[in-house]
Design brief:
alpha+beta, Alpha-Beta Plaits, five-stranded mixed β-sheet, 5 strands, about 50% helix
């Protein structure tokens, strides 16, 4: 999953960089809460995060994304912050796995979330067979 803090630059410009940093910390806390201890999350760059999920279904990804979106909405309700999230699911034999393709698919899904109004999750699932 790729996670982007919507309008983060506006938060920095209007409320200051300290507030922007606090927003990024809260989003990171939300990622830890939503994903649990079995998955790996981190900052991908700027105001984007990546969440690597192991052994999940498309429904699991939707559930995690919904938890994260809900966390940010409730925790940061006093700051105009939302998230756009894109997820790509690789199903099948790991032999044909390509992390660059999967990341690109998640990025494409992320931009679909942005195009469709932000504050949402869009996922894609590709079945791969070996």
């Amino acid at each position: 999953m790729l996670i982007d803090v919507d309008y983060c630059k506006q938060v920095n410009d209007t409320l200051g960089h300290q507030t922007g940093d606090m927003v990024l910390r809260e989003v990171a806390d939300g990622i830890r809460m939503a994903a649990g201890s079995h998955h790996i999350g981190g900052r991908y760059g700027g105001d984007e995060f990546i969440l690597l999920l192991h052994d999940v279904t498309a429904d699991d990804m939707q559930f995690i994304a919904d938890r994260l979106l809900s966390y940010v909405r409730s925790t940061l309700s006093y700051i105009p912050v939302t998230l756009s999230i894109g997820g790509a699911l690789y199903e099948g034999d790991i032999t044909g796995y390509d992390s660059e393709v999967l990341t690109k698919e998640a990025d494409t899904a992320l931009y679909k979330s942005k195009e469709n109004g932000r504050d949402r999750y869009t996922g894609v699932s590709n079945e791969k067979t070996g």
